[in-house]
Design a protein that fits this description.
23 strands; 16 helices; alpha/beta; FAD/NAD(P)-binding domain
Length: 520
């Protein structure tokens, strides 16, 4: 067994797309990097839906640090032309279908049970769903080709002293000794560096409380096929409804559906654990219709839970009839609560990227964009060799990142709180679209000048706080209060509504919300 001694500028733990991309940026800027990962590529990962803000940031990264290989990934058309071997899916926007009362769709009521919000003007400039096993491996290999020293599938131990990180271990047939002045935690939920340093957690302060059961499937019908079979008019839709992040909104959460170009489908239930608890209380009081008070039983296996949740809905039952899991090899996966948040995301000689510092929920597809924001900001900081300036910038990075995760929590939790009312879910969702689309209209270097989703905008954060109180009242007080809540949101988001949200003439089929083609 050979032995290698490495003394890079930066040690990065974790080689998912965030860690590998950060390594690639640093290498192209002339820094030396070692990437350590206890797993090997390719490997299954969830977190697959890009947005215009994600694509815009990726394009800015590619241009700023001269990484032209990244530019084709910013649109579906160029991706397919340049990298046909990397599996992706076309994402024209966000599709929401109301399944909250679990009854089947019908032409008579369907117009009130759907919301489509465009993100892309056409297929060529569409966003994408990333097959993460392909994309992560692609970025990892780019980092290797650019000079990263990598160790996969091994074990390592950390030691830390002032301005010095030491990692010793084995990878493949090599013993390694890495001695670096700076370390980055890109291990995601593993939180390797955070746990090593004993950084306290503050997950209990987050309001969103959801868990998941998920996999990738084949032989599922498309939503459009099912809608047409039910004689639903889909011709007015601004885009094919399956070319989207599809949200099946349920009484106790929602299901995501992301379709790839090989017709496989990433699908997963997100279950609001607070709603599930309240469902038990409603069952006991017998104060709601039976379709809305079904409390989930205790499940012996992930398959049992999946089957129960699909069977509740006639639409989903038809859609998944005859389907089977094709990814990951281990089959359906279940989680406990998925939220997490650290109290510190950087120190004088270390930092964590977004998905390690915290995570909220797949809702609103914030994960890829927010990771790109933190990677780009951290790369800029690590170009600064002045230790006093760098320390101050790292402190701001940490505080800002944690506050952005809190803002995402507020934007997500309000949708869950609106359940089981589809109208309240959609109304609160407009706050996310106001924040996201206003950022998409900004300059190309939004990640360096503007906080993610307006998290550092006092007026917007106050809007979220006041809106949350009004949401509770609207949910409690009934239809007239919901109407007043809608009027309030329409007026309140005016400073950030650059794309015609609340255009009642479009009948919840938004095309004006698409990001401009020349934005990046």
């Amino acid at each position: 067994m050979s032995r290698r001694i490495e003394k890079p500028d930066v040690l990065i733990l974790g080689s998912g797309f965030g860690g590998s991309l950060l390594a690639l940026i640093l290498l192209r800027a002339g820094k030396s990097v070692v990437l350590l990962d206890r797993q090997k590529h390719p490997r299954f990962a969830i977190g697959e839906s890009s947005t215009p803000l994600a694509d815009k940031t990726l394009a800015a990264v590619a241009r700023r640090w001269s990484i032209p290989e990244l530019l084709p990934l910013t649109h579906w058309g160029t991706w397919k032309q340049t990298y046909p071997h990397l599996l992706c899916g076309r994402k024209r926007g966000f599709t929401y279908f109301d399944q909250t009362d679990l009854t089947d769709v019908s032409p008579a009521s369907f117009d009130h049970r759907r919301l489509l919000v465009s993100a892309s003007v056409d297929n060529e400039h569409s966003d994408t769903h990333w097959l993460r096993s392909d994309v992560d491996q692609f970025l990892f290999q780019l980092a290797q080709q650019s000079g990263a020293v990598t160790f996969e599938g091994g074990r390592y131990e950390l030691q830390h002293g002032p301005g010095r990180w030491v990692a010793t271990g084995t990878g493949a047939d090599t013993e390694f000794f890495v001695d670096a002045p700076f370390a980055v935690d890109a291990t995601g939920s593993g939180g390797g560096l955070l746990k090593f340093l004993g950084i306290p957690d503050q997950t209990q302060e987050l309001r969103t409380n959801s868990r998941s059961v998920f996999a990738h499937f084949v032989d599922t019908q498309t939503c459009e096929q099912l809608l047409r079979a039910s004689r639903i008019d889909v011709e007015r839709f601004p885009f094919a409804c399956d070319d989207a992040a599809v949200h099946q909104v349920l009484p106790d959460g929602w299901m995501w559906q992301l379709r790839y170009d090989d017709n496989s489908l990433s699908a997963g239930f997100m279950i609001d654990q607070r709603t599930d608890q309240r469902a038990g209380e409603r069952v006991e009081s017998q104060t709601v219709p039976s379709t809305r008070r079904d409390r989930a039983p205790v499940f012996a296996t992930a398959q049992d839970e999946w089957d129960w949740r699909v069977a509740r809905s006639a639409f989903l039952s038809r859609q998944f009839a005859g389907s089977f899991v094709n990814r990951p090899a281990s089959g359906l996966t279940t989680t406990q609560r998925i939220q997490r948040l650290t109290t510190q995301a950087a120190g004088t000689d270390w930092a964590a990227i977004t998905n390690t510092a915290g995570f909220i929920d797949p809702l609103h597809s914030t994960g890829i964009a927010h990771t790109l924001f933190s990677v780009a900001r951290l790369a800029e900081i690590l170009m600064d060799d002045d230790s006093s300036t760098r320390t101050e910038r790292l402190q701001r990075y940490s505080a800002g990142l944690i506050e952005e995760i809190r803002c995402v929590d507020e934007l997500v939790e309000g949708c869950y709180e609106g359940l089981p009312e589809f109208s309240l879910w959609c109304l609160w969702g407009m706050l996310y679209f106001a924040a996201a689309t206003s950022m998409e209209q900004a300059g190309n270097d939004a990640f360096s000048s503007v906080s993610f989703l307006r998290a550092n905008d006092p007026a917007f954060r106050q809007l979220l706080r006041e809106g949350r109180e009004r949401l509770t009242a609207a949910k409690r007080d009934g239809a007239k209060s919901v109407e007043h809540f809608a009027e309030w949101i329409q007026k309140a988001i005016e400073p950030w509504n650059k794309v015609g949200l609340f255009d009642f003439e479009c009948d919840n089929l938004y095309s004006s919300t698409a990001a401009p083609v020349d934005a990046w």
